[in-house]
Each structure stands twice: as C-alpha cells, then as structure tokens.
Design a protein that fits this description.
The protein is mainly beta. The chain contains two helices and eight strands, in the order E-E-E-E-H-E-H-E-E-E. The model has no long low-confidence stretch (mean pLDDT 86). It binds zinc ion (ZN) (3 copies).
C-alpha cells in the first residue's frame, strides 16, 4: 500500500490548498498524506497507527507496531450521547446501560459514527491483543 503524497497547490484565486501530512512516529519525517482514519483518530484522541514501516528511514529496522490499549464505551446511540433517561446519566457520565471494554487501538478499526460526532468500532480487537506476542506456531 503506497500512501499518496499530495503537493501543496496554489488555486486560481491565489489561495493555497495544503494536504495535512502524517509524520513518522519514529523519526518525525513527513511520509505522505494523512489518511481519513488517521484524521478521525486524531479528532477522537485515539492513538495514531504506527507508521514506521512506511518510512524509508525507519522501515528496515522498525519492529511490529506496538499494541496500545484504549477504553471503548459500548451502548445505544442515545446513551453514548448522554441523551437517554436511564439511571445514572448526568453530566460527563454515562448511564448504567453503557458498558466499557478495553480494546487494542492499533488492531481495531473505526468508522465515523452518527453525524460524525464520535467514532464507532467496526472491529474491536479485545485486550490483551493477540497480535501483541510473537506468533510462534
Ligand atoms: Zn521514520
Ligand atoms: Zn494489537
Ligand atoms: Zn442510557
């Protein structure tokens, strides 16, 4: 998979279009365009994927991406928006219907949720992540 690297463009009206770039998490070099999933991760405060293997400097020596645990709230849309009238819902606290699980942020996949207000996990990889240990059959 090759990451596009869109150069900055100057539009006909003189304004500039700049595509946000992703920096390598190993050496800090820019490796190409920020992907949509990296953008939503940044917005959601989720750890960004490890991209050292895409980097020409770090790639040859980069280890497997490091698994990172994160908490994931699961429940109804109304509950997750704290708009429901279940017991326990109050400012900045979910109601009793909302469960919390720990998943691997690196090996789970996410998609923008209702009205892009938050993310939903399309695949939740339970923690401890099975990708975490070296697989020796
Ligand atoms: Zn690098
Ligand atoms: Zn993992
Ligand atoms: Zn609720």
């Amino acid at each position: 998979m090759t990451r596009p690297n869109t150069p900055d463009r100057v539009n006909s009206d003189g304004s500039k279009t700049i595509t946000t770039k992703r920096a390598c998490n190993g050496c800090g070099d820019l490796i190409g365009d920020l992907t949509d999933s990296e953008f939503t991760a940044a917005v959601a405060g989720r750890p960004l994927p490890d991209v050292r293997r895409e980097c020409t400097t770090c790639g040859p020596t980069a280890p497997e991406p490091t698994c990172t645990p994160m908490k994931l709230a699961s429940g109804d849309v109304l509950c997750l928006e704290m708009e429901c009238d279940h017991d326990g819902v109050r400012d900045n606290s979910y109601c009793e219907e909302v469960g919390e699980e720990v998943v691997c942020a690196i090996h789970s996949t996410f998609a923008p949720g209702f009205e892009d207000a938050y993310e939903v996990a399309t695949h939740a990889e339970p923690w401890p992540c099975k990708h975490n240990k070296a697989v020796t059959p």
